[in-house]
Design a protein that fits this description.
The protein is built from eleven helices and no strands. With about 270 residues, the protein is an all-alpha fold. The model has no long low-confidence stretch (mean pLDDT about 90). It has one domain. It is globular, with a radius of gyration of 19 Å. The longest helix is centred in the middle third of the chain and has 32 residues. The chain starts with a helix and ends with a helix.
Length: about 270
C-alpha cells in the first residue's frame, strides 16, 4: 500500500509539472506546493531533470516545424546570404541573445536563488506579481511578427526569463508578458517564448547530468520516475496545445484570476 501511494504521489507530481510548464502559472511554484501537500520533502534532482526533459520533448514536438525552418533558414542565410532567409536567421540570433541572461544568472546564482526563495510564501507573492503583470497586458495586441524583432526586444524578454529562475515566477508567463509588452503579436510572442525555453532547458539538462550520475538515489524510485516522466510528457503536450488556443483568443486575464486566487489562498492557509 505504501509503495502504491508513492507511485501515485509521483504520478501526481508529473501531472502537475506537465500541466503548469507551458502555461503562465509557474511549474516550479506548483511543484513546491504539490510536494508540500503530498508530504514529499524533495522530489530529487533526477525527478527534476526527467520531468523537464519530458516537457522539453513535448514542446519541441509541437514546434518541430518551426525549429526545422529556423535551422535550415539560418544555415542557408549563412551559406548564401539570400535575403529570403534573413528573417529566420535574425530570429535565431535573437533567440541566442535572449538566452544569455538566464544562462548567466543561472550559472552564477541558481543555487542561491533556490535556497533563498524556495518557500511557499515566496511562491504566493510571485504568483500575485505574475497575476498583476498578466492583468496589465491582457488587452494588448501587438503588431510585430518574427521579422520585426529588434535587439532590444530579445534582451528584454531574455531578462524576463532570467527573473523566472525565482520559484513561483512563471517562465512562460514572464517571457510571454515581456514579449507582448514589447509589441509582439500573440503568436510571435508565444513562439519566441518557447524558442527561448528550448536552449535554456537543454542546458539545464546537460549541466544536471553529472550530478545525477554522482547521486545515489534509491533504486526503488525507478517506477515512480518513469510514471512521472510519462505523465509529464503527455500532459505537457495537451496543456501546450490548450494554451496556444488561449493565446490565439487573447484570454490571458483568466490566468491572472487564477494567480490571484492561488496566491491569496497560499498566504492564508500555508
Amino acid at each position: 500500500m505504501e509503495e502504491t501511494w508513492l507511485w501515485l504521489k509521483y504520478l501526481i507530481l508529473g501531472i502537475v509539472q506537465g500541466a503548469t510548464e507551458p502555461i503562465p502559472v509557474s511549474s516550479s511554484g506548483h511543484l513546491i506546493i504539490a510536494q508540500r501537500l503530498l508530504g514529499v520533502d524533495q522530489a530529487g534532482l533526477t525527478f527534476e531533470i526527467l520531468t523537464n526533459t519530458a516537457s522539453l520533448i513535448a514542446i519541441m514536438f509541437i514546434y518541430r516545424h518551426d525549429i526545422g525552418r529556423l535551422i535550415v533558414g539560418t544555415w542557408q542565410y549563412i551559406r548564401t546570404r539570400d535575403a529570403k532567409y534573413k528573417s529566420d536567421f535574425m530570429f535565431a540570433m535573437y533567440v541566442v541573445l535572449g538566452t544569455i541572461p538566464a544562462v548567466v544568472v543561472g550559472l552564477l546564482f541558481k543555487d542561491w536563488i533556490e535556497v533563498t526563495f524556495s518557500s511557499v510564501k515566496t511562491v504566493a507573492v510571485a504568483l500575485l506579481v505574475t497575476g498583476v503583470a498578466l492583468w496589465l497586458i491582457r488587452n494588448m495586441r501587438g503588431r510585430k511578427q518574427d521579422g520585426d524583432l529588434k535587439f532590444r526586444d530579445a534582451l528584454l524578454v531574455g531578462l524576463a526569463q532570467a527573473v523566472a529562475l525565482i520559484p513561483g515566477v512563471s517562465r512562460s508567463g514572464s517571457t510571454v508578458i515581456a514579449s507582448i509588452a514589447t509589441g509582439m503579436k500573440q503568436d510571435t510572442a508565444l513562439r519566441f517564448s518557447f524558442m527561448l525555453y528550448i536552449p535554456v532547458s537543454l542546458g539545464a539538462i546537460v549541466l544536471g547530468l553529472p550530478d545525477i550520475i554522482s547521486t545515489s538515489e534509491a533504486p526503488g524510485m525507478l517506477l515512480p520516475y518513469v510514471l512521472a516522466f510519462v505523465a509529464t510528457l503527455i500532459v505537457t503536450y495537451f496543456a501546450m496545445k490548450w494554451f496556444m488556443g488561449i493565446m490565439a483568443k487573447g484570454n490571458l486575464k483568466y490566468f491572472a484570476y487564477y494567480c490571484f486566487v492561488v496566491g491569496i489562498l497560499l498566504l492564508i492557509f500555508l
